[in-house]
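Support reply, case 0932

Customer input (verbatim):
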Amino acid sequence: MGEIHKVPQIKHQIDFVEYYKYFMTFKKLYLKVGLVVFVFSSIYVFSLPRFYTTQVKLAPEESSGGSGMLGSLASLANIKLGSSSSGDDAIYPELYPDLFKSKSFLVSLFDIKLHAKGSDESFTLYEYYLGHQKIPFWQYPINAVINWLGSLRKPDPSLVNGAPGKTGVNPFHLSLLEDGIAQMIGGAINCTVDKHTDVITIQTTAQDPVVSALLADSVMSRLQNFITQYRTNKARVDVAYSEKLLAEAKMKYDETRMRYTSYADTHNELYMVTYKTELTNLENEMQLAYNVYSQVMQQLQISQAKVQECTPAFTTIEAATVPLLPAGPKRVKTILIHLFLSVVIVSGYLYFRKEKDKQNVVEKHSDEPFNPEKTSQTV
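Our regenerated output:
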């Protein structure tokens, strides 16, 4: 039996100069593909509406006791915070952005009053997303197809129809349209919190610069009010209870005072001990009712002071201003990226094509019968 000679495999190395010269032979292909990509990417990117971004920054006061503001936000998001050894709730600054995912908060923004640049026409945020948004021309047929497919179904009328942007919208049961508007509003608002400084940064995006600035200012104000309401909720409940007790105590004091004065006037000239004793009892009841009324009034004042104490203070670091330049879309950058990707794709296609040609040549030679004389002549 003859010995089988194994040819050692040579590690394949890429000759970049060779491939560069090979690619340069297809200049016309690069130009054609690049021209097509340039035209279509230009049509695409210039059809996209411009959008503007406004940024505001604010810092809340430090809370020394209890869970504070973040504990209130945790209750909103149905998150139970852990407890430390001191009994205070753990602080998670990440809870601030969770507030903007709450449908109740997003629905509360429906009635924000806005106006566009160069126009005095006022409209709500709901109406802005419903009828003041621009879309690319190629999205019209897509929307038409979606609406046609939606018309084939018969959804629940209570889900389709709803109070369009009215203050009576129920976050528990939104219509399809209201839920879509709420999702668009949530996508236009971005909130981040610096873990080291607790500075809240809010960014709002809109197709109109004035709308973007007004939305950022309104969202910042609504955020402050929302957090304040949750933080002072316990104290405000105590105030309402104290007011109820005060009204009852005042009513009882007025009743005992009227009985005392009426009895004193009708028995003024009588000197019987029985009458004097009854008058003394009525006076004691009146004094006792007055003492209760006075204590409840003091308690009400303390509760009102507690509300003020629990109300957080916010420092505005960066106020909302109307942006002068659009934040996007980056038209030139987008076109350049598309052109670069077209070069990469064409180069990859040519590379694999050349590698396949090389492999076909090697397989063709390997199928030929072995000829020692031809091998010796080659060597």
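We compared this against your earlier run and they match. Two observations from our side: Confidence is low (pLDDT under 50) at residues 64-68, 73-92, 374-379. Strands lie at 52-60, 113-115, 122-124, 189-193, 200-206, 314-318. Please reopen the case if you see a mismatch on your end.
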